[in-house]
């Protein structure tokens, strides 16, 4: 009983000790309201953004900026075309920088409005030569980056000295018979001796363009060196470069592929009448082989190619004594020498001014047709008629000296350019009587400087 009474009293004491805390907890519960979470804030980001734009005329500034940017992209192509055109230039160009833009669009597809062209990177082999240097001038003028590759066998640095220091121009002394690695968009392959004096001087180099074979067969004294040079190996190397980098390749072939033609005028479908073992065959057959290689690379490797068959061309920067009839006559007339006519002088040629040829080459490269295309002036002259025009232009008292005709000299040469007119929208604009004085002025200055260099007053 005592133990039970003790437990009861102890329990009663605990109840008394706990009573104040319970009362306090109850009081706190009455004084402090029950917890409740905060009401979620309403999303006011959209009204605040609109309010930010409308405050202090920010929306007006944004609209003005959009208008200025749109105006720039609309008028920029027009400004580019205006700046690229030069009404005072001597060249008559039918294929302007729009062709460059068309080429870019055709390669990469649709482009944003206002971006109609890009600067192409172009290599010109033989770019220090007569035609090559004029082509380089036009490409630089159009706004392209140009790399000239030349071994200066027939080219001259003087033809390009006015471009030294131009940031868009580079020149590499290199023979295309050896491979070269470049990153370019287009390749104009002009490298080859084109005049009779030069290609007859080294016919083996002319036909192939470098292949060295060294054999050492059990005898230290036996060394065989085989040099096979320009038209084939040079073309092969440049076609290989075009294949590796995906560049478009243009081969400058020649009307000599027609040989002494039995068809007159000559169309591109004519296969020619060429003597494969004659004195001129190194050049004729070399170019025919270069055309074959070009088409084989196109069919077999998918290389984009273009082929131009160039007829007689004249103009400033021709070599003074390269054996071509126009330069021969002009230099002889200025030097007061008789004009040399081979044979009876009744063989015919067609003569185009160099700017017309450059226009044709650029139209062909930037167009979508492979060719071959005849690029020449269909105006036909006998050698005696040409001599008469030179006499009228330079010295009416000049005389004519007849010499035996050269081997395999074509009797007739006149291009049919209907294909180029239709597909390239190209035809020559400058007649012989208009272009010859421009060439005469250049020859006079150079012959005068040449004579002064020799001590002749």
UniProtKB/TrEMBL annotation:
It is a single-pass type II membrane protein. The chain crosses the membrane at residues 59-79, 207-228. Residues 1-10, 19-31 have a biased composition (Polar residues). SUPFAM superfamilies: NAD(P)-binding Rossmann-fold domains. GO terms for cellular component: Golgi cisterna membrane. Pathway: Nucleotide-sugar biosynthesis; UDP-alpha-D-xylose biosynthesis; UDP-alpha-D-xylose from UDP-alpha-D-glucuronate: step 1/1. Its cofactor is NAD(+). It is found in: Golgi apparatus, Golgi stack membrane. It comes from the Eukaryota. Residues 124-206, 227-437 form the NAD(P)-binding domain. One of its GO terms (biological process) is D-xylose metabolic process. Residues 1-43 are annotated as: Disordered. CDD domains: UGD_SDR_e (cd05230). Its EC number is 4.1.1.35. Keywords: Decarboxylase, Golgi apparatus, Lyase, Membrane, NAD, Transmembrane, Transmembrane helix. One of its GO terms (molecular function) is UDP-glucuronate decarboxylase activity. Catalyzes the NAD-dependent decarboxylation of UDP-glucuronic acid to UDP-xylose. Necessary for the biosynthesis of the core tetrasaccharide in glycosaminoglycan biosynthesis. Belongs to the NAD(P)-dependent epimerase/dehydratase family. UDP-glucuronic acid decarboxylase subfamily. PANTHER family: UDP-GLUCURONIC ACID DECARBOXYLASE 1, UDP-GLUCURONIC ACID DECARBOXYLASE-RELATED. This is UDP-glucuronate decarboxylase. It comes from Crotalaria pallida.
């Amino acid at each position: 009983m005592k133990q039970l009474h003790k437990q009861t009293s102890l329990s009663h004491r605990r109840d008394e000790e706990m009573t104040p805390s319970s009362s306090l907890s109850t009081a706190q519960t009455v004084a402090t309201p029950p917890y409740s979470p905060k009401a979620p804030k309403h999303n006011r980001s959209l009204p605040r953004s609109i309010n930010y734009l409308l405050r202090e005329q920010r929306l007006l500034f944004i609209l003005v900026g959009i208008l200025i940017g749109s105006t720039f992209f609309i008028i920029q192509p027009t400004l580019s075309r205006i700046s690229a055109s030069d009404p005072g230039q001597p060249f008559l160009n039918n294929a302007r920088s729009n062709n460059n833009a068309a080429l870019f669009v055709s390669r990469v597809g649709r482009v944003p409005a206002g971006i109609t062209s890009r600067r192409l990177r172009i290599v010109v082999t033989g770019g220090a030569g007569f035609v090559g240097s004029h082509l380089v001038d036009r490409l630089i003028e159009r706004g392209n980056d140009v790399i000239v590759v030349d071994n200066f066998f027939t080219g001259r640095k003087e033809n390009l000295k006015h471009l030294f220091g131009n940031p868009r121009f580079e020149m590499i002394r290199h023979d295309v018979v050896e491979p070269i690695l470049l990153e370019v968009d287009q390749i104009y392959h002009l490298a080859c001796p084109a005049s009779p004096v030069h290609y007859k001087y080294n016919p083996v180099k002319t036909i192939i363009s470098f292949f060295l074979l060294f054999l050492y067969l059990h005898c230290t004294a036996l060394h065989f060196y085989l040099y096979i040079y320009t038209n084939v190996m040079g073309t092969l190397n440049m076609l290989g470069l075009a294949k590796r980098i995906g560049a478009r390749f243009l081969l400058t072939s020649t009307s000599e592929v027609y040989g002494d033609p039995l068809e007159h005028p000559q169309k591109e479908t004519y296969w020619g009448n060429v003597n494969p073992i004659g004195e001129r065959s190194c050049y004729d057959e070399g170019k025919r082989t270069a055309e074959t290689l070009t088409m084989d690379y196109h069919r077999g490797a998918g290389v984009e190619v273009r082929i131009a068959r160039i007829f007689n061309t004249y103009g400033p920067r021709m070599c003074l004594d390269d054996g071509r009839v126009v330069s021969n006559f002009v230099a002889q007339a200025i030097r007061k020498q008789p004009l040399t006519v081979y044979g009876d002088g009744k063989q015919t040629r067609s003569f185009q001014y160099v700017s017309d040829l450059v226009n044709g080459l650029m139209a062909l490269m930037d167009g979508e047709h492979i060719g071959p295309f005849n690029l020449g002036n269909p105006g036909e002259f006998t050698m005696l008629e040409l001599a008469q025009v030179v006499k009228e232009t330079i010295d009416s008292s000049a005389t004519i000296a007849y010499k035996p005709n050269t081997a395999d000299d074509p009797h007739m040469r006149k291009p049919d350019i209907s294909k180029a007119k239709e597909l390239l929208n190209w035809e020559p604009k400058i007649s012989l009587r208009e272009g010859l004085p421009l060439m005469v002025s250049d020859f006079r200055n150079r012959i005068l400087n040449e004579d002064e260099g020799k001590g002749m007053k």
